[in-house]
Structures are given as structure tokens and as C-alpha cells.
Design a protein that fits this description.
Layout: H1 6-22, E1 26-32, H2 38-51, E2 55-60, H3 71-82, H4 88-100, H5 104-107, H6 121-136, E3 141-146, H7 153-163, E4 171-178, H8 186-192, E5 198-202, H9 208-218, H10 228-241, H11 245-252, H12 273-282, H13 287-299, H14 305-312, H15 316-328, E6 332-333, E7 336-337, H16 340-349, H17 352-368, H18 373-383, H19 391-404, H20 408-419, H21 425-442, H22 448-460, H23 465-477, H24 481-490, H25 492-497, H26 505-517, H27 523-527, H28 529-532, H29 544-556, H30 564-575, H31 586-594, H32 598-609, H33 618-634, H34 638-651, H35 662-674, H36 678-685, H37 697-712, H38 716-733, H39 743-753, H40 757-768, H41 776-787, H42 792-809, H43 812-828, H44 836-845, H45 879-889, H46 894-901, H47 905-919, H48 940-946
């Protein structure tokens, strides 16, 4: 398809018509970069000329035949012979002239260097022109020569002879030439330019309108301006190809595909139509241009022409020329390949050994030019270069930057090569330490071998602080608490750290971490609360690592001196954007969770998971998802909790979790149990766990989940055993943070199920009187359970308080349970059908597929609980009455209610009169306390106004 070449085609047609009319010759030269449609234009014009009765002879230059004398002329004479001319004499003279050319080197000489001397040349030139004139007698003659830049020198001499004698011969000479690195056939062009009847046509790139036309033709919608989507697609293709018709048509011919927002579309397989077009264009350039294109593909970044020349060993002028022709053909945009798909095509065609050599040259050259270590390191890894002194420091520096930027995958590649680079022992230890951290973030199982080497080396050196800090978190993850405790207690620095203040951050943080994560070890570190508790709220006087662990300690060992919630929020706000150790952010997240702020945990986890680097850190991503899953469970959002916990186990398989596997497994067991999917809970319980897990708080979390499953399936003894074991662990550790595991509350559930309400009430009162750290959710659950052991009058008060607490902490499932039980208590006290709308509130709080086991309705309500909502009954509050009643229960005056709901005071009085009658009360102070929790029955603007 010839697009946007109508003007040039019309010009050529006028030239031929002028030749025929005035019986005078004409020369036309068509120029342009590779792929601009020159050949297509010549073929289209040739077909048209032939259809008008003209005689058309065609030839094409070729790089492979450039040293063949009279190669192009021979093609033209072959066409003449087919047209009926006798070319025998001319061909004989051509053979003699070819033999007279002295050397093989002369055959490759340019037209301005090859001497056309010898007795055979004059008769040859005359006979060539005479042969062509024989064809003119039958009509206009058109000589078409494509790829003139590759024509042999002898043929060019003959063509010049013909062009000098066109004054009275209707012969049109049509030539096409592609842009090259260096001007080709300068003397030929100089003489050709002196011809009075010469047309020079340059083919420009396609415009957006032309690409739009191509897209419309493809989609079967020719004509018109094109829709905005088509124009947008045309602009994308134009930018991607520089308007090169060869590349554009390859893209247009592909199945319709769009690049996703936020990133390029996936690269297609090698050998696709566009890739073939790129290589077709590339191989029609000189070898120097291919070298430059390959170097740009390997570098994949803007570089100076000087650097590019040094990398390839080319003169700057050669690089400039190569970039010029590559840019004109649409492959290069300024100083880099125009599009990733072009880069992909060029790299796929580059032999492995050449690519490796280019990477090695790039590493050396970029290092000499002072490029960033990460850039140089990428080329070092690709080339495998290790034999020079500067390699190891560059790789170490690049690894540190990659690790802090959340790219442990790159870090591992840098460090592996760095360890092979013949480094000194001290540097090798540092690299091994970093390698453990990087490999753990990708796959904890892959870090085991490096961790063992690091531990052996640290033991030999007496456990310096750097080695202990590097090894301890991963030893704890694997359940190797004895080795972790030894690491932080063995070195001379550790002895000083036992009495040091908070400014001695790293080692003290590790000691506290061991004590909190495996509470059987280093008990003294946990009990020396005065040494670290102030670090939780210190602004800048301690290391972030010590502050993070101290925040967690203040949540697990709560006191009046430290507000762990505020400290955790402040730490996350200050450090969540840091490019350093992200693992320390786990501690404040857990602190918020154990302090009862599951809502803030969900919010912060969303922020952290939204960071781009989490794509490359499966371990970190899995841990954050596991924490968010437990937080969602505590907010009553079972679907979200299950989704996050499953995703955490997809990020890391269960064996890779070490002793932390109880986190996501415990959440999944709880979700399945709460939803009544007991067979699924059994499958999760069948997953193997390390015995060392039960020496950690994560093990306590798992025991609570397992015990709850036993209780829901009627295995009271097994449930009691798990809860009691959990309680023994917590008492032994002296960890009474109820947000961690409120084991007394869970044990009370067993006693209630067994009918031992007195014992249950005792456990619940103990739970309510735990000093410090009793979060709203735990208090609400305790009061809710305690209500089931209390007398009817006291039960309603306890349930009302539980409703308030669940509403405050955001636990929808707990709220649904408490509302449903409040409804039941009201019915038992004689409320009857007057509380039906309260069931609706409980049902709303427990929306979702897992709500049924939690909303206990009266038998007559279970079929269609909302059946009477819209009915006009004397014992059911209407929606309008309910809104007024909620505000009245909160102490609002009639005028305030009128302003909030945009109704008249008279209407408020009428609603209240009907409400008092339906609820059997005399005044607003007698309105039920459960109305205080009913925010959802108020419009948002009313809620805002009231608040």
C-alpha cells in the first residue's frame, strides 16, 4: 500500500509525459532513508508507465554484487534483450572491458576513482546508447535503477554517458538511493547534478494522518478524520517508528494490541513481524551502523557519542554518521533506540559472544567515565568480568544501593559475581552478609547456605556486632533461637551492651528482638525495660532499628509511660519512605495490631504494599500481607483476611516461612472456622509446622486459631488444652498484651459451651482487669461474653457497652453478634416484634457470604427478615422515625433534629410521638441505649453535622 507518496508519484508521471510530448529525456533521483518506500514508489510508477505504452527496463544495485563489473548494466540489457533488441555485441564488449580492469581491488573502486580507459570503452558506450535508442523507436523508454548506492562503478560510467545524451531522446532515467554513512559516488552525483532536466525527490516520514489512514484501512473504515482512539493509536505508532513506512506497516499488520497504562505492553516473541522489519532495516545499513545499534541496545541508556565511539573503537565522525542514518530510518531517537521492541529485536539478533563482549566493553568504558555503580554492575554481571581490581568495590556499592532500593534480585546477582572477583577476606564477609539479606527477601530457603557460612565465619571472629546484626533476624526466622542468643551475647561488644544506654542501638535492638520473638531466651533484655522503653518515643537520639523493636516491646509489655499506638504511628510516618531496611517496619505494624488498632494496620499495610519495590521482594510482601490479613480478621472482614493470607502463602510457600508460618496459617484457620468451613480448616491444620514455632508468640496465635476450630466442632477438651497451653506460655513469658492472644477470653468460651458460667465469668473478669494493654476489641468481646453469664437487667447494659466498643474499634462481625444478642435480650424482656428493626441493623453489620452463622434471628424472622420493613405496622419504626429516634437518644433537641434532617419541628414531634408509642416509652431519656450505635441509619451529611 503506497501511503503519502501521491505527490512524488504525480511528479514522476508528469516527467514521463513531458519526455513523450517533447521528445526529450529526463533524470529523476529519489532519495530517503531505509524503509521509506523508495522501491515501492519505483515499482508503482513502473507499472503505470508500462500501462501507458512505455518500455520499462529495471535493475537494482546490491552490496554483494558491487564488485561485479557491469552488474547493473547487465540487468538493464537483459530487459532490452527480452524486449527484442540484439545485445550480443554490447555484451561482448562488456566482457572485454571487464577483463581489462587490472585488479580485484579496482572492481570495488568508486565511480570517481575507476579510469574508464582502453580501446573497448568508446565502442561499448556508443553501442549501449544505440541499443537503448532502438527501444525508443517503439515509445518512451524508462530506465529504473533501485539502490544506486550499491551500483558497480562500471555501470555508473555507462549511465552517465546515457544521461549526457538525453537532449533529443525520450528516455527517462529513474534512480533511487538510500542514505549511507558516507556520501556514495560523489563524482557521479556531481556530474548528474549538472543535468538541466533533473528532478530530486526526497521521501519524508509518514505523518500521523497517514498512519491514521492505514489503521482505518486495516479496520475496514476508510475515509474520515478517524476517532480519537484511532488518532491516539496512530500517534503511538508514529512515535514508536519515527514514521518509517516499513516499520509502521509491520505494526499495523499485527493483531490489535494496546500498551497498558503505567507501563509498556509485554514484549512479543522473537521473530514477530515488527522485529523482522527492524532487522530488515538494520541489515540494509553498513556494518558500522549495526555495531552502533547493538551497542545502544546493550547500553539501553542515553550516552555521549564520544563514549559510544570509545566503546566500539570507532572515530566520533563514524558514530555521528551511524546515529544520523539510524535516526533517519526510525530506529534511533536522539541517542538511544526509539522503543523497547526495537531494542528487543536488535538484542535477539546479536550473537551471545558479541553481546558479552559489548557488555564487558560497556562496563570498562562506563567505569572510566564515572558512571553510577549500579549501571556498571549490570554490565559486569552480563559479561561475567571478574579479573580486575576495581570490579569487587563497584559490585559491592551497587549491591548496597540495590538492596536499599528494594531490588534484592539485582543484589543477589551483583554479590554472586562479587564473591568470585578475588576479593579480600574482609570484603568477602561483608558481601556474604549482604547476600543473606538479599536472598532471604527473594526466598528464605535459598539463604540457608549463605547464612551457615556467615555464622561459621562470625564464630571464628568472636561475633562482631556487624555479623550478629546481620545473622540474628534470619536465625530467629528459622527458629534457631539458641544460635541467635549466642550471637548477641558472645562478642566483647555484647558485654558492654548489657548495661549500655539506648544510643548503642544495633546490638541492643537484636538482644531485645531475640527476647521478644523467643521469650524463653534473654529474659533479662526484656525485663530491663528502663534501658529501652524510652527509645520507643525518642525522636532522633537512637538508631531506627532499636526504636522499631522498642515500639514493639512497649506494645507487648505495656506501661503508662509509653503510648505504643502513638509511637508506632510516628515511627511509620517517619520511616515508611526510607530506602533502607524495610524489615524494621514490621515491628510497629505488629505493635499497632497488638494495641488493638487493626484499622490503622490495614491502612499502613496498604501504603507499604503500594510501593513499587514490593514487586521484587516476595518475603517482605508476604509478611505485610500476613499482618494485614490478621488485621482484617479482627475487623470482621473475612473475605479480605482470607484473600491476604492466601496471597501471603503464594508469595512464600509454607516451608519458606520458618517459625512465622503460624501467622498466615492461623488466620486462614480462623477464617474457615468463622465461616463454618470446618473441612477447609482441617486442611490448613494439616500443613506441617516447626516445633520451634510454639516457643514464639506466633505459636500462641496459631494455638488460639486451632483451639477455636476445636471449640466450633464440639471438641471442648482439645480446645481447652490449646487455650490452657497458650495461657501457660503467656504467663511464663509474662506477656500480658491482650491484643496478642486474649487466652482467658477464649478459655471462657469453652466454659460457657460446657455450661460452667461461673468459671467463665471469673475468667472474663480477670481478662477485664489485666493491667494495661486491654484494647477496645478485646474489652468488647469480654463484655459480650460476660453478658451471657449475667442476669437479664445487667445483660442489656453489658451488651450496650459491647456494642459501643465494637462500633468504636470497627469490628463488624463482633458488632453483628452483639446487636443480634441485644435483640434477643430485648425480646426476652418483652420487646417482641418491636425490636425487629434491630435485627436489620445486626444483619447490615454482618453483610457478606459468611454472615449467616453470626446473626441469630427468631424462627419467624429467618425466612425474610426485611419482609415487614416497608409495611405500615404499629410496632415497627419507619426509616424516618428511626433517624429521629437515633438523634433524640443522643440528646439532641427537637430544633437540632429539625436542622440536621431538614424537616420541620412539628414533623420531629410527630415522629417522636409515634416512636414512644411503638417502643412503649414515655420520654427520650427512656429510649433504648442500642439506638446510640446506629450510625448507618443517618445520611452522611447528618453524621458529619452531628459529629
Amino acid at each position: 500500500m503506497l501511503i503519502e507518496r501521491g505527490e512524488q508519484l504525480a511528479q514522476l508521471r508528469r516527467n514521463l509525459q513531458s519526455c513523450e510530448k517533447h521528445r526529450i529525456g529526463h533524470v529523476a533521483l529519489v532519495t530517503g532513508p531505509v524503509g521509506m518506500g523508495k522501491t515501492q514508489l519505483l515499482e508503482t510508477f513502473g507499472k503505470w508507465a508500462d500501462s501507458t505504452g512505455a518500455r520499462v527496463l529495471t535493475a537494482a544495485g546490491s552490496r554483494a554484487e558491487q564488485g561485479l563489473p557491469f552488474g547493473v548494466l547487465g540487468q538493464l540489457l537483459h530487459g532490452a534483450r527480452l524486449a527484442g533488441c540484439d545485445t550480443t555485441r554490447v555484451e561482448k564488449l562488456m566482457a572485454e572491458a571487464a577483463d581489462a580492469i587490472p585488479t580485484a581491488e579496482a572492481r570495488w573502486a568508486a565511480a570517481d576513482e575507476l579510469p574508464a580507459e582502453g580501446p573497448m570503452w568508446p565502442p561499448l558506450l556508443r553501442d549501449v546508447f544505440a541499443t537503448l535508442l532502438e527501444l525508443v523507436d517503439r515509445g518512451p523508454l524508462v530506465l529504473v535503477v533501485d539502490d544506486l548506492q550499491h551500483a558497480d562503478a562500471t555501470s555508473l560510467h555507462c549511465l552517465l554517458y546515457v544521461t549526457r545524451r538525453l537532449h533529443h531522446a525520450p528516455i527517462m532515467v529513474l534512480l533511487s538511493e538510500t542514505s549511507t554513512l558516507r556520501p556514495a559516488n560523489s563524482l557521479f552525483h556531481a556530474e548528474l547534478g549538472s543535468r538541466p532536466r533533473l528532478s530530486h525527490l526526497t521521501l519524508p516520514p509518514l505523518t500521523v494522518d497517514s498512519v491514521t489512514q492505514l489503521l482505518q484501512e486495516r479496520d475496514g473504515e476508510p475515509g474520515g478524520a478517524g476517532s480519537s482512539e484511532v488518532v491516539q493509536e496512530a500517534q503511538r505508532l508514529r512515535h514508536m517508528t519515527g514514521g518509517n513506512p516499513l516499520l509502521v506497516q509491520a505494526l499495523v499488520g499485527e493483531p490489535h494490541r494496546r500498551e497498558e497504562e503505567g507501563g509498556p505492553a509485554p514484549l512479543p516473541r522473537v521473530g514477530d513481524a515488527f522485529g523482522r522489519a527492524v532487522l530488515h532495516s538494520l541489515y540494509r545499513h553498513e556494518p558500522e551502523a549495526r555495531k552502533v545499534a547493538r551497542a545502544l541496545a546493550v547500553l539501553d541508556r542515553p550516552v555521549s557519542q564520544e563514549l559510544l565511539g570509545q566503546l566500539l573503537g570507532l572515530l566520533p565522525a563514524s558514530v555521528t554518521s551511524a546515529l544520523r542514518v539510524l535516526h533517519s530510518s526510525g530506529l534511533v531517537d536522539t541517542d538511544r533506540l526509539r522503543h523497547p521492541r526495537i531494542l528487543h529485536a536488535v538484542l535477539s539478533d546479536t550473537p551471545t559472544e558479541i553481546r558479552q563482549w559489548l557488555h564487558e566493553r560497556a562496563a570498562k568504558t562506563l567505569h572510566e567515565y564515572g558512571a553510577e555503580s549500579s549501571v556498571v554492575a549490570g554490565h559486569l554481571v552480563a559479561s561475567g568480568l571478574t579479573g580486575e581490581e576495581w570490579v569487587a568495590p563497584v559490585l559491592q556499592d551497587a549491591a548496597e544501593h540495590a538492596l536499599s532500593a528494594g531490588r534484592p534480585d539485582l543484589t543477589v546477582a551483583y554479590l554472586r559475581l562479587g564473591c568470585e572477583a578475588g576479593t579480600d577476606e574482609e570484603r568477602r564477609k561483608a558481601l556474604t552478609s549482604m547476600l543473606v539479606s538479599a536472598r532471604w527477601q527473594v526466598n528464605p530457603l535459598a539463604a540457608n547456605g549463605d547464612l551457615d557460612r556467615l555464622v561459621r565465619s562470625a564464630k571464628t571472629d568472636g561475633y562482631p556486632v556487624s555479623a550478629a546484626v546481620a545473622a540474628v533476624p534470619y536465625l530467629l526466622w528459622q527458629g534457631r533461637a539458641e544460635e541467635a542468643a549466642e550471637a548477641v551475647a558472645a562478642g566483647p561488644e555484647a558485654k558492654a551492651g548489657e548495661t549500655a544506654g539506648p544510643k548503642d542501638g544495633r546490638l541492643q535492638a537484636m538482644r531485645l528482638l531475640v527476647s521478644l520473638s523467643h521469650p524463653d531466651f534473654l529474659v533479662s533484655a526484656r525485663k530491663s525495660q528502663g534501658l529501652w522503653s524510652k527509645a520507643a518515643t525518642a525522636a532522633h537520639s537512637v538508631s531506627p532499628l532499636l526504636q522499631a523493636v522498642s515500639v514493639l516491646g512497649s506494645a507487648l509489655l505495656p506501661t503508662d509511660e509509653v503510648d505504643s499506638t502513638a509511637a508506632a504511628e510516628q515511627f511509620l510516618q517517619r520511616h515508611h519512605l526510607d530506602r533502607g531496611d524495610r524489615g524494621m517496619l514490621v515491628a510497629p505494624l505488629l505493635a499497632l495490631l497488638y494495641a488493638g488498632r487493626a484499622d490503622r494496620v490495614v491502612a499502613w499495610c496498604g501504603i507499604l504494599l503500594g510501593r513499587p519495590e514490593t514487586r521484587h521482594t516476595p518475603a517482605w510482601r508476604g509478611v505485610v500481607r500476613s499482618i494485614r490479613a490478621e488485621a482484617a480478621l479482627r475487623l470482621g472482614d473475612l473475605p479480605e483476611a482470607e484473600q491476604d493470607a492466601r496471597a501471603a502463602l503464594e508469595d512464600l510457600p509454607a516451608p519458606a516461612w520458618g517459625v512465622a508460618v503460624g501467622g498466615p496459617l492461623g488466620t486462614l484457620i480462623s477464617c474457615a472456622t468463622e465461616a463454618g468451613r470446618h473441612a477447609e480448616a482441617e486442611r490448613w491444620l494439616a500443613e506441617p509446622v516447626q516445633t520451634g514455632m510454639f516457643r514464639t508468640p506466633v505459636g500462641a496465635h496459631y494455638l488460639i486459631a486451632r483451639g477455636s476450630h476445636h471449640l466450633s466442632t464440639g471438641r471442648h477438651q482439645a480446645a481447652s488444652s490449646d487455650f490452657q497451653r497458650c495461657g501457660a506460655m503467656m504467663r511464663g513469658w509474662n506477656l500480658e498484651a491482650t491484643g496478642l492472644v486474649p487466652w482467658r477470653l477464649e478459655l471462657a468460651r469453652v466454659q460457657i459451651a460446657l455450661g460452667n458460667r461461673t468459671h467463665a465469668a471469673q475468667l472474663l473478669r480477670e481478662q477485664l482487669h489485666v493491667p494495661h494493654g486491654l484494647d477496645e476489641r478485646t474489652r468488647g468481646r469480654a463484655l459480650h461474653l460476660l453478658a451471657s453469664t449475667a442476669a437479664p437487667d445487667h445483660r442489656r447494659k453489658l451488651l450496650s457497652k459491647a456494642v459501643e466498643l465494637f462500633q468504636s474499634c470497627g469490628d463488624r462481625r463482633g458488632l453483628a453478634r452483639a446487636l443480634a444478642d441485644t435483640n434477643q435480650a430485648l425480646r426476652q424482656s418483652g420487646g417482641g416484634e418491636r425490636t425487629r428493626h434491630f435485627v436489620f441493623r445486626a444483619d447490615d453489620a454482618a453483610k457478606g457470604p459468611d454472615a449467616v452463622p453470626w446473626v441469630r434471628q427468631a424462627p419467624e424472622q429467618q425466612g425474610n427478615p426485611r419482609a415487614a420493613e416497608d409495611g405500615d405496622r404499629d410496632d415497627v419504626l419507619s426509616e424516618a422515625e428511626l433517624r429521629v429516634a437515633v438523634l433524640a437518644a443522643r440528646g439532641q433537641t427537637n430544633r437540632q433534629i429539625s436542622d440536621a434532617l431538614f424537616i420541620t419541628v412539628s414533623t420531629v414531634e410527630q415522629h417522636l410521638t409515634r416512636t414512644y408509642r411503638k417502643l412503649n416509652v414515655r420520654q427520650r431519656t427512656d429510649l433504648p441505649s442500642w439506638l446510640l450505635a446506629m450510625d448507618d441509619h443517618q445520611p452522611r451529611e447528618v453524621q458529619d453535622k452531628v459529629s
